[in-house]
Each structure stands twice: as C-alpha cells, then as structure tokens.
Design a protein that fits this description.
Distance between the termini: 36 Å
Largest sheet: 8 strands, antiparallel, barrel
Number of strands: 8
Shape: elongated
Number of helices: 2
Length: about 190
Amino acid sequence: MKKLFFALCLSFFLQTIHAQAFQKDSKMINAGLGFGWSYYHGSYDNVSSFPNIEVSYEQGIYELEDVGPISVGGILGFSHSQRDFNSGAISINQKWNDIYAAARGKLYLNEILDNPKFDLYAGLSLGLRYINYKVSDNYNDPDRPNDLNLMLNVFGGVRYFITDQVAIYGEVGYGIAYLTIGATFKL
C-alpha cells in the first residue's frame, strides 16, 4: 500500500513539475460554477437557485515587461432562481433566468509571483446581461418585462496548474456570481 501511494505521489509530481503559467501565446478554456448571486434577493422562504454556470475563452496577446501577459477573450454565463410563496389566499411562483455574455481582458501578474504553477490576475468584462422574469399566481400579477442591461465587471483571480494542460481557479467579482471556482484547460 505504501509503495502504491509513493508511486501515485511520484507520478503526480512528475506530471506537475512542467506546469507553466499563462504566457503571451497561451490559449485556454475555463469552465466554472458561481456562488453568491441570484437575481432575487428577498427574505422569504422557499427561494432556491442552482450554482451559476460560466464558460470562457482567453488568448494571450501581449507581454508587459516586469509584470506579465495580457489576454482577451469572452465569457458566457447562466443562472436561475425561483421563489415559491404560499400564504393561504395568496400563491406565487416566480422564476428568474439570467444570461450574461461579455468580452473580457486580463492582466496577469506572473512576474510578481514568479511561480510557474500559479497565475494571479485582475481584469475587466464588458457585455450584456439578459434577465427573464416569469410569475404565476392566483391574483393576476403581471410578468415583468425582460431586462437587457449593459454590464461592467471588475474581477480578480488565482489559478493553480495541476498538470501542463489542466488547472483549477478561483475568481471574485461581479459577473454572473460573486465567487466562481472551476477548471482551466490549455489548448
């Protein structure tokens, strides 16, 4: 059992020893789950939402000397919230679907970290957020009109490379969620 454990640890170490931080010519896909945001913020019972889903692509375009690379790309996100309220004569079911599409850019601070397994970055997103609201009740409350809003998101994050091609990341900001965790795949 000890030999198997040692062999697995050695295999993991050898796979990760060549991991390389984001560079000027890097291309990556990120997939994550977001937490901490839903369209409906209320103090009622029976509010539910599942983790927000995000997918993004980025490509390095320029290297800032003594700082790190700059990347550009895009992001798509989706979230859903639902509220069920029943109080005798009043019965309400509300649903919110939120779709976010944006262009984004990142500045990597890799020269500051000086560790090839970690990426530290900050960035901006500019895009559109579409919010669809539906309600069904027993007293004819009308559906709200759908919203289409311009979104500006400031965010920061860290990425840790498990292998040459795969990393895990965490990101904070105001996009489809306040906190996103996920996996990155180098192309």
